[in-house]
């Protein structure tokens, strides 16, 4: 039976930041479930970087059904957690069920991958204090307020936590996360 990995997300998540780890982890032979506030078809967005804009732009993206509602998730069923970015983390961090799920992964010392605005969720659980992380660069003050040391680089590994800035950093992010997964789960 394949090992299971959980992706937690919601509407307005960045399409690539959900789909890339989802497909990459399936390719590696993991079973991957997507959990959201409720079981429904999620509507993602595309964030792009265009000349002349001071920040990223947003366009409608792909859709994908959530396999589970947060209330149905048993964190003990999963070996690792992935937290994509986009706008979803801005409201998801207020979801008590999700904060319990994320807290359970940190309490059990299981691998967590976060990208872009995803660290807003881990910050809301108090799980970043004393850690080294990266995130979308505009979140540097948020990461520092959460007690983390912010590093503006492709991927930061701090124990079993792997963070990244945004979808252009996917290769480095997933390369480092897969190393963490292999060393923490498959060798035992």
From TrEMBL:
Residues 4-179 form the DJ-1/PfpI domain. InterPro entries: C56_PfpI-like, Class_I_gatase-like, DJ-1/PfpI. It comes from the Bacteria. Pfam families: DJ-1_PfpI (PF01965). Belongs to the peptidase C56 family. This is DJ-1/PfpI family protein. It comes from Streptomyces rhizosphaericola.
């Amino acid at each position: 039976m394949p090992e299971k990995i959980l992706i937690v997300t919601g509407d307005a998540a960045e399409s690539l930041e959900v789909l890339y780890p989802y497909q990459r982890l399936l390719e590696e032979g993991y079973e991957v479930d997507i959990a959201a506030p409720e079981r429904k078809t999620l509507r993602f967005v595309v964030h792009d970087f265009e000349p002349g804009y001071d920040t990223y732009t947003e366009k409608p993206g792909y859709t994908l059904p959530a396999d589970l509602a947060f209330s149905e998730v048993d964190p003990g069923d999963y070996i690792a957690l992935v937290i994509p970015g986009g706008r979803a983390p801005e409201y998801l961090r207020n979801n008590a069920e999700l904060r319990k799920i994320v807290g359970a992964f940190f309490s059990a010392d299981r691998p967590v991958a976060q990208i872009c605005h995803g660290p807003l969720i881990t910050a809301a659980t108090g799980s970043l204090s004393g850690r080294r992380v990266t995130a979308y660069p505009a979140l540097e003050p948020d990461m520092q307020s959460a007690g983390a040391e912010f590093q503006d680089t492709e991927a930061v590994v701090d124990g079993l936590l792997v963070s990244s800035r945004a979808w252009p950093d996917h290769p480095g992010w997933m390369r480092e996360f897969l190393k963490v997964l292999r060393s923490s789960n498959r060798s035992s």
